[in-house]
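Page 37, continued from 36.
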């Protein structure tokens, strides 16, 4: 009999001594076997509820980003350097913070 496991959203706050940079975050992601790409958006931009067929890792590089997980009844705010790991098929929506945002996200190669 197969046992199904439920993956959880994982949030990791930035604890580095220096401000996170695009270079050091993307280097970390590549070292983990992730394929990173960068995106940015204007203040208060909203992404509707979505999900993906792959596990996603998302870092906030600049600004802030609020992520809501409606089925989990959770909400987190990412700031510079913060990371969230979103398992495949997890529903979420995004609201960009008042100063806009730049993020790097990726999935396993």
């Amino acid at each position: 009999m197969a046992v199904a496991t439920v993956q959880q959203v994982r949030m990791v706050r930035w604890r580095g001594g220096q401000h996170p940079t695009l270079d050091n975050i993307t280097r970390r992601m590549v070292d983990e076997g992730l394929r990173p790409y960068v995106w940015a958006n204007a203040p208060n931009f909203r992404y509707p509820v979505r999900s993906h067929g792959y596990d996603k890792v998302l870092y906030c590089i600049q600004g802030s980003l609020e992520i809501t997980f409606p089925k989990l009844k959770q909400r987190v705010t990412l700031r510079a350097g913060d990371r969230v790991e979103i398992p495949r098929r997890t529903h979420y929506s995004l609201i960009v913070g008042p100063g806009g945002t730049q993020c790097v996200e990726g999935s396993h190669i």
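Residues 1-5 have pLDDT under 50 and may be disordered. Flag for discussion at group meeting. The first helix runs from residue 22 to 31.
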